[in-house]
Amino acid sequence: MKDRSHTLNISVVLVVIFYSISIQPLIEGLVNNIIFSYLINFITSIVSYEIILKFIYSFINNRDFFLKIYWRKLYLKGFWSYTYTLEKKEYKGIWGIY
Fold first, then answer.
1. How far apart are the C-alpha atoms of 88 and 98, rounded to whole Å?
2. Whether the Cβ atoms of residue 63 and residue 70 lie closer than 8 Å to each other
């Protein structure tokens, strides 16, 4: 999990860095104070990072196809059966994950 979320977070950070570099000349053209323009860029970068990350995680968590891609072999959905032995007696069961 840590590796998957780390990779996703780094990807979003790279998108936000590209966004910040792209938007900085536009902000400097609108605002004469350079410190204020950097502050605006910093705040919009933080907000856009949070929005993009929340959107991606909600998008992944609400679709089975993307959950399978994200979790790979760890993704479980459907009916599962199990068998175990306790005190020389065999027990069987079934459960569903939705």
1. 32
2. no
Residue pair 19/48 in contact by the 8 Å Cβ criterion: yes
CA distances from 41 to 9, 10, 31 (A): 20, 19, 11
Domain boundaries, the chain: 2-72
Which amino acid makes up residue 39? L
CA-based Rg of the chain, rounded to a whole angstrom? 23
Using pLDDT thresholds of 50, 70 and 90, give the confidence band for residue 98: low
pLDDT tens for 29-81 read 888 888 888 999 999 999 999 999 999 988 888 888 888 888 777 777 777 77
What's the half-sphere exposure (Cβ side, CA atoms, 13 Å) at 34?
0
Distance CA 84, CA 46 (A): 50
At residue 92, what is the residue type?
Answer: K
